[in-house]
Automatic annotation (TrEMBL):
<dbReference type="InterPro" id="IPR023214">
    <property type="entry name" value="HAD_sf"/>
</dbReference>
<dbReference type="GO" id="GO:0005992">
    <property type="term" value="P:trehalose biosynthetic process"/>
</dbReference>
<comment type="pathway">
    <text>Glycan biosynthesis; trehalose biosynthesis.</text>
</comment>
<keyword id="KW-0378">Hydrolase</keyword>
<protein>
    <recommendedName>
        <fullName>Trehalose 6-phosphate phosphatase</fullName>
        <ecNumber>3.1.3.12</ecNumber>
    </recommendedName>
</protein>
<dbReference type="GO" id="GO:0046872">
    <property type="term" value="F:metal ion binding"/>
</dbReference>
<comment type="similarity">
    <text>Belongs to the trehalose phosphatase family.</text>
</comment>
<keyword id="KW-0460">Magnesium</keyword>
<keyword id="KW-0479">Metal-binding</keyword>
<comment type="function">
    <text>Removes the phosphate from trehalose 6-phosphate to produce free trehalose.</text>
</comment>
<dbReference type="Pfam" id="PF02358">
    <property type="entry name" value="Trehalose_PPase"/>
</dbReference>
<dbReference type="InterPro" id="IPR044651">
    <property type="entry name" value="OTSB-like"/>
</dbReference>
<dbReference type="InterPro" id="IPR036412">
    <property type="entry name" value="HAD-like_sf"/>
</dbReference>
<dbReference type="GO" id="GO:0004805">
    <property type="term" value="F:trehalose-phosphatase activity"/>
</dbReference>
<dbReference type="InterPro" id="IPR003337">
    <property type="entry name" value="Trehalose_PPase"/>
</dbReference>
Length: 254
């Protein structure tokens, strides 16, 4: 083990074995969610920086022959690039898969802006709540609302605003109203297919990652980060363990 997370502990034996197995398969797709996986969850989304060692581990993986590394996020791609600071030949998939091979069209932005206008006064009425306007959705954040009854009430109100043309994406202390029906599972299958990958490693922590865990074939390696029910086949506790996992995989690829 040569990476910075070498001393943080051990991975479960079945996960270590699965990593050793997948490392021998090419082309290999290694894909990861961002918030809660490569970066700890914090109150202000613009302050969610990567955990120490994450950038280095991704850089090692992407340098390996026959390996593609994808960052797959609910964030818009521009935001994800800025907040992560990651630089390298990565595939960037944002807005839960709606941004697959470039920015979205202006027509979607007009629908999103109308939605943001409706939600803004509801959010402004709840101290600590935050409205995040993204390329294909508007997110109502309640992580910093201390009055939990008010937080639940706001999420209910936001839910009620949604008409059937929108896709609701509940997440950790957030409800997103999306103007596309994109999801991470569909985007990952598309990328897997485009690359002709014979195996995928996917790491995620939230409800929107379950779309990916559910659709990836049984030979793929899926990892839930943190607690909660999941369709993933493996689990690690936190972003520090994610770095250990990525370094272990990079060692096996060497
Ligand atoms: O798909 P992801 O990369 O995991 O992005 C999911 C959402 O992440 C962000 O919100 C979450 O992280 C925030 C910062 O730690 C936290 O304050 C918030 O409570 C979490 O829900 C981001 O702001 C959203 O746009 C992403 O969809």
């Amino acid at each position: 083990m040569s990476g910075p997370a070498a001393a943080t502990g051990a991975l479960p034996a079945d996960l270590a074995e699965a990593l050793a197995d997948v490392a021998g398969r090419r082309p290999l797709l290694v894909a990861s969610d961002y918030d809660g996986v490569l970066a700890p969850l914090v109150g202000d989304p613009s302050a969610a920086v990567p955990v120490p060692g994450a950038a280095g581990a991704l850089a090692r993986l992407v340098a390996a022959d026959g390996v593609t590394v994808a960052l797959v996020s609910g964030r818009g791609v521009a935001d994800l690039r800025a907040v992560s600071g990651f630089e390298g030949p990565y595939r960037w998939i944002g807005s839960h898969g709606a941004e697959y091979d470039g920015p979205l069209t202006g027509e979607l932005a007009a629908r999103r802006d109308a939605l943001a206008e409706r939600l803004a006064p509801l959010v402004a009425a709840v101290p600590g709540a935050r409205l995040e306007v993204k390329p294909a959705s508007v997110a109502v954040h309640v992580r910093q609302v201390t009055d939990r009854v008010a937080a639940a009430g706001l999420l209910e109100q936001a839910h009620a605003v949604a008409d059937p043309s929108l896709t609701l994406k509940p997440g950790k202390e957030v409800l997103e109203l999306a103007v596309t029906d994109a999801d991470k599972g569909t985007a990952l299958l598309r990328l897997r297919d485009d690359l002709g990958a014979v195996a995928t490693v996917y790491l995620g922590d939230d409800r929107t990652d379950e779309d990916a865990f559910r659709v990836l074939p049984p030979g793929d390696l899926t990892v839930k980060v943190g607690e909660g029910e999941t369709a993933a086949r493996h689990r690690v506790p936190d972003p520090a363990a994610v770095v250990l996992l990525l370094e272990t995989l990079a060692d096996a690829l060497d």
